[in-house]
Amino acid sequence: MKTVQPVILCGGSGTRLWPLSRGLYPKQFMDLGGDTLFARTVARASALQGSLPPLVVCNNEHRFLAAAILQQQGGLPGRENAAKARILLEPMGRNTAPAIALAALAAQTALEPENHANPDPLLLVLSSDHAITPLQAFIDAVEAAAAGAEAGRLLVFGVPPTRPETGFGYIRQGEALGPDVFAVSRFVEKPDADTAQSMLDQGGFFWNSGMFLFRASVFLDELARLAPEVHAACLEIHQGREKDLDFTRFAEEPFSRCPSISIDYAVMERTDKAAVTPLAASWTDMGSWEAFYEAADKDEHGNAGVGDVLHIDSRDCYLHSEHRLVAAIGLEGIGVVETADAVLVLRRDRSQDVKLLLAEMKRRNRPETDTHLRVYRPWGWYETLALGDRFQVKRIMVSPGAVLSLQLHHHRAEHWVVVRGTANVTVGDNDVLLQEDQSTYIPLGTRHRLANPGRIPLEIIEIQTGSYLGEDDIVRLEDTYGRVKR
After folding, report:
1. Using CA atoms, how far apart are residues 41 and 37, in angstroms rounded to an integer?
2. Could you tell me which of 166, 167, 184 has the C-alpha nearest to residue 175?
């Protein structure tokens, strides 16, 4: 098999997984017991023999979440390539066709000298939020699809359906083109229940996994032929790219003019080069709470539980606790998801409708649509413990070796108390090391900075007092992470 360039699409928002998934903390980065769907995707790509460091296409707001996970993965045996990943930053969402086109252009123009013998690698396009088991089935499918891709086909991976699912698109299998490679007879939009059952009864249909394998040049040529306005826009965007630390940035103005369209509509449903390879594995896009229920272990009554949960006389329920006990009595077919600031209760058969709830919350300008009480930053995270008139209390965690920006506030003063680790604190012109149980005071308008020089996470309690406590009252004077001053 030729060299494979994994392309991981990481721009989804996961709105149907609220309240765990939020605008600034989408489902691919959600903590699933010390793991994330994005990390699992990176590990899956790393398991392929001869795969290159991945290209990650990521929303600008999520760049440090993606970078931190890639660094962690790069420290694991067999996944060294993860730390060498390149991250392409989208200033806004434009769907999958532009994202894949920019990745294809990046793969063609950033080749290392040792890869000159292979100037046109196979692009393996993966979504960052899928669950696939067993791993060997995934590897086998990629190897089977490689022959078709090398011959100039655009391969999509099709999952044999196990139920009449209405939440997925379908692919009808055509003539055989080789071992485990078939022409695509047609694509089918997400069907109603009767149509889905009919396709299941007929056979010869696959779920459309949204994962692809093709040569970069073949995809770009077909994009230029079938969607020339998208191809031209992506060429302009790519030519204006800029390097920023470990990221590749694209200018917002030309990006905003690029048509927003999926790879299916732009290319796959219109090309005569489409082919499908079966992915004989347990697969789900983890796009709803029903998908999480299906993937979870269940008791003898069909109940699935995550976290501190207790149920009596209940059947076929999904109970998910993040912070406190969730207890249920006499429920059937119900889902409950608890977080620190919100609780979702729904019928399991309405899990696709969480997006309707989010739309209503956005209409009402509810902050819970975008952020958790815990907010992640490139240096660690903070969470709000208490908020009142003219005061706010936060818990702040700074990763080992990380440093916050040198900043000041016009409307608030701050007290810091170290509860774990060692803090290197700058206040005005003074630098001091603080140990556990020691504290400092930052007067309003005073420049200050917090850093963790130690090898363990630094935790502090921050007490803010003042007339305005919003996050936009930050004037950054210096910043390690290249964030704009505001």
Report:
1. 6
2. 184
Q: How far apart are CA 472 and CA 373, in angstroms?
A: 16
C-alpha separations of 28 from 46, 89, 112, 288, 306 in Å? 17, 16, 29, 12, 18
Cα dihedral across residues 111, 12, 129, 125: positive or negative: negative
What digits encode the pLDDT tens for the residues 187-245?
Answer: 999 999 999 999 999 999 999 999 999 999 999 999 999 999 999 999 999 999 998 87
Cα 47 to the center of its chain, rounded Å: 20
Q: CB of 123 within 8 A of CB of 286? A: no
Q: What count of Cα atoms within 13 Å lies in the side-chain half-sphere of residue 30?
A: 24
List strand residue ranges (DSSP E) for 245-281, in order: 247-249, 274-278
| pLDDT tens profile 78-133 | 788 888 899 999 999 999 999 999 999 999 986 544 444 457 889 999 999 999 99
CA distance 13 to 2: 33
**β strands within 330-411, DSSP E:** 334-338, 343-347, 374-377, 380-388, 391-398, 406-408
Which burial class, exposed, middle or buried, applies to 25 when counting CB atoms under 10 A from its CB (0-12, 13-18, 19+)?
Answer: buried
Shortest CA distance to 213 belongs to which of 286, 279, 167, 118? 279
- In angstroms, rounded to a whole number, what is the distance separating the alpha carbons of residues 333 and 400? 44
Cite the beta strand spans of 15-163 per DSSP E: 55-59, 86-90, 122-127, 131-133, 154-159
CA-to-CA dists, residue 94 to 22, 24, 251, 252, 432, angstroms: 19, 17, 13, 12, 47
